[in-house]
Amino acid sequence: MQWQDHAIILGVKRHGETSVIAEVMTRDRGRHLGLVRSGRSRAMQPVLQPGNGVEIVWRARLDEHLGEFRVEPVTLRAARLMETATAVYGVQAMGALLRLLPERDPHPHLFDALEVILDHLHNPADAGELFVRFELAVLNDLGFGLDLAECAATGARSDLAYVSPKSGRAVSRSAGAPWADKMLILPPFLGVEGNHAADFESLAAAFRLTGFFLHRHVYEPRGMEAAAARDGFVQAALKALDPALRALAGPSGVSA
């Protein structure tokens, strides 16, 4: 059996003396593993770095086998991804999110989003906003999508200010006012109007929002903890917007 696809390197593991098992996100076949012979050679090591875009040819006798990859470089962005903290942590954190999905389950929109984010990780403000949207997309594909389009109580589509921690649905400012202390904040840049850029406060609220639902629906039921890289990314993205930041990010978001 054989197929060819665009892919992004997520990581590698040593296999024997000279080979590696590469983990990639492909556009049409989802997250996939394959053996790369001589993957530890001087020629292949720079190619098999997380974040790099490659062309993959996979071969195996049977579909359920691990199979072998032939890898050709396309977009070698790994060196640039080492230049900022948001990029270093971001590529690791997105890889951890993709590992929550079943192997070989296609998610072409996540592949496309991953490519876009990797090219913007050097800009912390853009990276933070795009990362939050990526987390929302992963939640949706796992079956726990949030409904942020209209108020759960009134059906209104304007002045949405909160998200119910129980239902994951948006709530308008007036309808949610009596329970504001129990609600999660809906950052303006995630609202349907979408006419606000992320700032420190709204990005911190967004990280709390996605972190809360990832913990409740994904990590806690699976007996997992959020990847440490997420905390590193959150701190780096927020520190870039507020250099005086000294708070530490917790597993469900940002601490006060």
TrEMBL record:
GO terms for cellular component: bacterial nucleoid. Residues 1-73 form the DNA replication/recombination mediator RecO N-terminal domain. It comes from the Bacteria. GO terms for biological process: DNA recombination; double-strand break repair. Keywords: DNA damage, DNA recombination, DNA repair. Belongs to the RecO family. HAMAP family: RecO. NCBIfam families: reco (TIGR00613). Involved in DNA repair and RecF pathway recombination. This is DNA repair protein RecO. It comes from Rhizobium aethiopicum. The lineage of its organism: Bacteria, Pseudomonadati, Pseudomonadota, Alphaproteobacteria, Hyphomicrobiales. The gene is recO.
